[in-house]
Amino acid sequence: MSISSRFAVGIHILALIELNKEGVTSSEFIAKSVNTNPAVIRKLMGMLKKAGLIEVNPGIAGAKLAKELSSITLFDVYKAVNVVHEKELFSIHESSHPDCLVGRNIQNTIEPLFTAAQLAMEKVLKNVTLEDVVKDIATKENNC
Amino acid sequence: MSISSRFAVGIHILALIELNKEGVTSSEFIAKSVNTNPAVIRKLMGMLKKAGLIEVNPGIAGAKLAKELSSITLFDVYKAVNVVHEKELFSIHESSHPDCLVGRNIQNTIEPLFTAAQLAMEKVLKNVTLEDVVKDIATKENNC
DNA sequence: AAACTTGTAATCAAAACAATTACATGATAA
DNA sequence: TTATCATGTAATTGTTTTGATTACAAGTTT
């Protein structure tokens, strides 16, 4: 199992809006870069808009960032596109048997451990901004 | 999207084998505690056996731990039941357009970030042993 | 009014899961 | 030996999630 590529595509969208800020970044333009369907992009743009990361309006072509590039973290995108819910990176088998010592306690024992692991992962995402991503893209390009 | 409950059930199985070490821990016995089908348990037991965590033989009822409880980490179980592959906790959209600055670089930029996040999560799992889990189950039981 | 955009719903195929059934194979006790 | 019970494993099924696609309403611009 894998965390949905919506997350990677969400980052792609935001980086593209930034790097194309002189131009008009429509859903069709983005869709070509991502190589997918414009409706997929519009769905994601709706999520990014709802999370306050971009500005986009019906009928008006193009999206703009709603915040400073350096103030958007990967965690913001991760939450915006809703790939993993709180405390639900790991799923816990729900219906253990209450008559069994292990069955009736395993869930409460495991849950905080799983949550801690998830938080450690999310902390890494909080420490990377879209500015880092965009700069890295530029660096990679210049070294080619 | 969530990481398969195979992981939680794998931990359950090992804890149960330990806490029932005086008795015979058959797939049917485990299945009752987990409240699922014995064939599901046998599949998981096969994975745990392949990973060298338990000993179990065809025709002979019951499984035993193959290692010290304190030397089995949650990460060992996580790898054994194969819920997440290396560097694949996050999926990356594969077919970005190479003619676009962002499209041709985003994948290489994002990949190490995703890997770092995954490793942070896995590090937490490496620092918890099944002994911790079993002790916690006992503690919870005594406080009821 | 025509052409273009975003917003959104409905549909579809593919993949992953977990549950279930079935049965071959191995071990053990009557 | 035969009956019984265990593990090992394959096939099937219903459910859920994804991502792609089509379609169209509603807003904007020329």
Automatic annotation (TrEMBL), chains A, B:
SUPFAM superfamilies xref list: Winged helix' DNA-binding domain (SSF46785)
Top-level taxon of the source organism: Bacteria
Protein name as annotated: Rrf2 family transcriptional regulator
Organism: Robertmurraya mangrovi
